[in-house]
Design brief:
Blueprint: H1 3-24, H2 30-39, H3 41-75
Helix pairs in contact: 1-2, 1-3
Length: 81
Amino acid sequence: MDANTTETFVDSFLSLYTRAVGMFVPIKIIEALQNDLRKDYIINKELIAFAGNLALKCGWLLTVFNKTYRFQSVSSDTPFL
């Protein structure tokens, strides 16, 4: 799988995760939490492995999600989620 696709998948998953947790737990700086999670070696390796398995099983769906996420993040300044 392309490294750029994998990075986009990891970024979007972490964004979704932090926003979902932020609904239940007060988080002062969501971007700081996302950056800390991106720097975590184990989390990154697990998400990359998950993205690889997902690409093997339903790659077309991952492609559609990736292109939608990229288009939306480039086309406006509003957050995706």
